[in-house]
Amino acid sequence: VKQAWETILALGAGTGLVLILRWYWWRINAWSEISSI
């Protein structure tokens, strides 16, 4: 059970990190597009 929880937490942290990075990436791209106009 402990191993399963650690795996779930690791996967959750991984997907959360990806979502955060994608969100930041979208904002950086949006700002660069706006500033280039």
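Above is the first protein from milestone M3; the second protein from the same milestone is given next.
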Amino acid sequence: MENSLSVLIGYLNQNYQDVSEIKSKSSQMFSVLFSRDKEGREKFHIFYILSIKIKAYVKFSLKAYLCLKQFL
């Protein structure tokens, strides 16, 4: 899973300019929650199941969602 997580973080860093914070820690499972910010832009939050270890804020797109689905 750590390798998959590294691939995902690399994808986000390469494809989105507004990733504000990514903290990588070893974990077996993580989940994704979607929300909107005050300006109405969609973003997703990546959380580990047991505790919050990663927060990635990016513009939502179908491509990003499909990328995330293969890691979940």
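Note on the second protein: The chain has one domain: 2-69.
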